[in-house]
Amino acid sequence: MTEVTSVRPSSIKAIQTPFHGGYTWPQLMGQLATNTEGIFGTALGVSAQIVFLFVLFGAVFDKLGAGDWFMRVAQSILGSFRGGAAKASILSSGLNGIISGSAVSNVVTGGNITIGTMIRTGYSREKAGAIEVASSSNGQLMPPVMGAAAFIMAQNLNIEYRSLILAAAIPAFLCYAALLAVAHIEALKLNLRGLPRSELPPLKRTVLEGWYYILPLGYLIGILTVNPEANPERIALNTILIMMVMMFVQEGFFANRDGRGLGQGLKDGARKLIEAFESGARSMVGIAIATAAAGIIVGIVTITGLGFGLADVVESVANLFQMPFLKVLAVLVMGQLIALILGMGLPTTANYILMSALIVPIIARVAGLDTSNPAQMLPAHMFVFYFGIMADSTPPVALAAFAAAAISGGDPVKTGVQAFQYELRTALLAYMMFFNPQLLLIAHDRLGGLPLAEAIPMILFAFIGLVAFSAATLRFLHRKTNPVQMLMLLVAAFVLIIPTHIAYNLGALALIAAVYFWQKAGSRREPPAPLPTAA
């Protein structure tokens, strides 16, 4: 059996047939079955070795009751604010994303409660579903789990997983902070109010009921981020063992308190653990199939030379521009479109595997990145990863939108279109990360080279830019924007993508302030809008 590596098709002599470019079955099987660029490649190995333990951790943590507790805490904190039902949904999805890397799973888990609450407070069925889709999809950005793709990314870059989750933390925070701003703008647009405090769980009692759920999560995040020598697999396994003990203690306590007896509590704990293991195994099946299938595609792309052809096409288009910045921008835009198109039929993990093999090398070549330096390559990998996540809410094949529409009773295509509009801020954030690696705490071509205190001004400018962009795409800030105001907001947002000079930053802030006060002055001359009728 002959092993074939990355070569152009012209360099292989084989029998020509009408069905392929001239490769024999032994060559094809050798590429797909015995090569690291095939089925049993790096991606599948990482999934089996590392990802499974984190998926199992998420399943056990959720079965322990942490997911429901996160949701009740979010409702008690944000439910009474304007648009509080949507904001609580966003916060709970973000917290749930810490332990779950699946958009559809997040929608199904949290959406059963949050979507109905949003509809009841005045959101349309499509908007309620879209907010849940956007917040659940972005759960894959939240450290420490971040879905299977993040572990594969760390392997591709040859960096510690600890370094990756520290770099990804600020963009994830910005993504959810901007989505909260989107929810607030929608609430202003629809003139919504918060939920009555009497309908919300009391914060103090809710926190006291489940404070111990923070212990295993704190152990996992603390060890991973503080100890550079920590082994992710070992830490995840230790956390699972801690939660198994907690499961028996919790169920035993509940059963003894309710008069069912300690023995019944231990039985309940064992049953829930079995259900958690079953749920984790079922979730892992989908990830394993996705990574294996992506390995097949990568192997075919490699042996046929399709990657070289795609690189030639993309670089030819980029060479139409003379300025280096425009060349890089053209490659990024084409990469974005390819990621979204591929993502319509592929899970995030498979999408990232393909994009990291096809597009990231082209970005590196055109942008002049050092492929041996993880600090230079991480923004390119994060760029394609973010657009792979956006594909979950990109119509017409938006699986998360279909799941949300099944709960809300809304139109799945309209839900997907609305979710995609909310997700446009994620697209802007991806460009911000690429052109401003300081958001990833990268400085002097070194991961973690920028202290957090020095990154704060960049974080503030990025957040303001995301809010301005969201207001422009939603056509509303304090009131409905006219074309001139929308253009001013877009210009300010794009200027803040690359905060190269403080004068430009201040000019962008001045544009945003001008639009706000312009609208504020106009709104004083209008009668107040009527309150919406609850659904």
TrEMBL record:
Keywords: Membrane, Transmembrane, Transmembrane helix. Residues 23-443 form the TRAP C4-dicarboxylate transport system permease DctM subunit domain. The keyword Transmembrane helix applies. The keyword Cell membrane does not apply. The chain crosses the membrane at residues 39-61, 163-185, 210-228, 235-255, 287-313, 325-346, 352-371, 383-407, 455-477, 489-518. This is TRAP C4-dicarboxylate transport system permease DctM subunit domain-containing protein. It comes from Deinococcus radiodurans (strain ATCC 13939 / DSM 20539 / JCM 16871 / CCUG 27074 / LMG 4051 / NBRC 15346 / NCIMB 9279 / VKM B-1422 / R1).
